[in-house]
């Protein structure tokens, strides 16, 4: 094994941390036997199909490889059809060549809240501009696989789209984001695989777009789930 030349204590600390991450990563993911799932997901690209309804527990992190890339998600529900597990994240694109399930500690949740009443047809980077604050990612690389948003009033409905370094991550509603009326609304399988990856020091925020007439809008709460690589 080649030992890199370390010029500073900070560099030495960084190299030790990277080595630890590589060693830990080997034990974080378990390869699922190929006879436990079908290569082709459901036609709506939301479900992995397996032999029983409980073969993947809820909120289990998921990683899979198809013919072109490796994607991440999280199990969020089951179909009434036996053996179908709903996966939040980017669309499930087959054929699934390899499938892994991860340990629970790979899931990182984060909350952002915008207090007070704000009025705008479109408001980009609302956390930074309205709350005068920033949220910086200080963990190893990960994928945003799911988020949900909440507000108290449904007039007007609001599109909410999480951004990573200024790039929107959800493709629903022509890229405007998740439609939120009153109460909680959550994403499904429309995360953008190109923009949902986050690295250390990148900023997290969200854009909002009002639907219909602009009026005073209630506070917004955002809950996000990331899966560490």
Produce a short descriptive summary.
The protein has 2 helices and 17 strands.
What does this structure look like?
- By secondary structure, the protein is mostly beta strands.
- It folds into two domains: 29-102; 106-228, Jelly Rolls.
- The chain has helices at 9-28, 126-131, and strands at 29-31, 47-49, 61-65, 70-78, 84-88, 98-102, 107-114, 122-123, 135-136, 142-151, 158-164, 167-168, 178-180, 183-186, 197-198, 203-210, 220-228.
- The strands form three sheets. The protein has a six-stranded antiparallel beta sheet. Strands 8, 9, 11, 12, 13 and 16 form a six-stranded antiparallel beta sheet that branches. Strands 7, 10, 14, 15 and 17 form a five-stranded antiparallel beta sheet that branches.
- β4 (70-78) and β5 form a beta hairpin.
- The longest helix has 20 residues, at 9-28.
- The protein is globular and about 55 Å long.
- The mean pLDDT is 86.
Number of folding domains?
2
Number of strands: 17
Radius of gyration, CA atoms, in whole angstroms: 19 Å
Determine the oligomeric state from the structure.
single chain
Give the % helix. Answer: 10-25%
The amount of beta strand, in percent, is: 35-45%
Major sheet = 6 strands, antiparallel
Instruction: Indicate the low-confidence ranges by residue numbers.
Output: none
Global mean pLDDT: 86
């Amino acid at each position: 094994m080649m030992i890199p030349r370390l010029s500073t204590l900070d560099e030495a600390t960084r190299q030790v941390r990277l080595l630890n991450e590589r060693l830990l990563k080997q034990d974080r993911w378990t390869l699922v036997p190929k006879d436990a799932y079908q290569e082709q997901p459901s036609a709506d690209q939301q479900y992995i199909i397996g032999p029983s309804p409980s073969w993947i527990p809820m909120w289990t992190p998921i990683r899979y490889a198809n013919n072109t890339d490796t994607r991440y998600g999280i199990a969020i529900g089951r179909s009434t059809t036996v053996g179908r597990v709903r996966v939040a994240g980017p669309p499930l694109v087959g054929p699934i060549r390899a499938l892994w399930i991860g340990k629970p500690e790979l899931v990182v949740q984060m909350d952002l809240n915008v207090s007070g009443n704000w009025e705008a047809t479109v408001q980009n980077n609302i956390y930074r501009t309205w709350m005068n604050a920033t949220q910086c990612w200080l963990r190893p690389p990960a994928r945003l696989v799911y988020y949900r948003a909440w507000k108290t009033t449904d007039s007007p409905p609001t599109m909410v789209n999480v951004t990573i370094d200024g790039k929107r991550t959800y493709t629903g509603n022509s890229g405007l984001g998740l439609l939120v009326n009153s109460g909680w609304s959550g994403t499904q399988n429309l995360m953008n695989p190109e923009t949902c990856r986050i690295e250390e020091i990148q900023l997290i925020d969200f854009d909002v777009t009002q639907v219909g007439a602009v009026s005073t809008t209630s506070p917004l709460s955002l809950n996000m789930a990331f899966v560490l690589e």
